[in-house]
Amino acid sequence: MKVFLAVISLMVLMQTDATGKRHKMRTHVRNVQGDDPLLEVEPIPPDTMIGPCSCQCCENAPEPLVAPKCANDIIVAVDSSACFRDHHSKMMRFLRRLVRKIGRTPNIQYGGDETRLGLMQFSSDILFPLHLSSFEDYTNPSTRKGLMNGIDEAISSLGFLGEGSFLNKALNATVSHFQNEPRPQALLDQISPTTPRPVVILMTNGKSHPSVTMDDIELSIAGLQAAGVTVIPISVTRECHGVQNEVWNEGLCPDTIILNKLAKVGRGDSSTFMEMKSHD
Ligand SMILES: *[C@@H]1O[C@H](CO)[C@@H](O)[C@H](O)[C@H]1NC(C)=O
């Protein structure tokens, strides 16, 4: 479980362009190991320094760089439709760990100049138990501990919804939320010249109410792409390979086609969806 959550954090951290990617991996790993992260950060050669999470520095930079922060707007979208009735508490445990893990990862932890978090729950309704602009855009409380406690409280308030899932509407709602709750100019100035990157971490099996067609999903995917959103889909259940046992339930099996389409949004053609691990 720990390793898996770390992978998601790293994915959030490393969603830079291809040139920034290699560098981020290196600094991140060193940051974790070294006592003083600043000692370990190397200047970025000029040809690889452009990227949302890399910083720009003068040539021949002699002085140590401040580790670049990654400004992410992350919405964790949780499918709470009827088929997940028996999975709700497991999903909430996973969510809590994921959110804590993000808060502890250097350079993506919560704050007005780093990560803002939104929580969305969906089935036939769409709820935002935590808005991206909560806590005065993550500046108050300004301590990480205070923010973590506030987020924990929001997660505790999530009940089970039931009914059918409308994934197309849910995906569209994330795009609207990013657009309706941008960071205020003062916070944008702090992270300039980078701009916050919108990321959706989606916990679902990719299935929807029968009235939702593949075309509907494709339209929503086009909307996400147009808005520059990165999607990290996490399947709540494991991929099914035929009837497995007497309690096997086709409705729970992930729709791997839809999940893999979503995995490519903002992350390139080789990306695939992940599975929520049920054991630690
Ligand atoms: C979702 O957004 C897309 C792109 O903006 C749009 O074409 C589609 O009609 C929307 N779907 C719903 C159900 O609102």
Automatic annotation (TrEMBL):
Q: Which residues form the VWFA domain?
A: 73-236
Q: Which UniProt keywords apply?
A: Signal
Organism, by scientific name, is Ciona savignyi
Q: Where is the signal peptide?
A: 1-18
Q: Which PANTHER family does this chain map to?
A: COLLAGEN ALPHA, VWFA DOMAIN-CONTAINING PROTEIN
Task: Please identify the protein, giving its name as recorded.
Answer: VWFA domain-containing protein
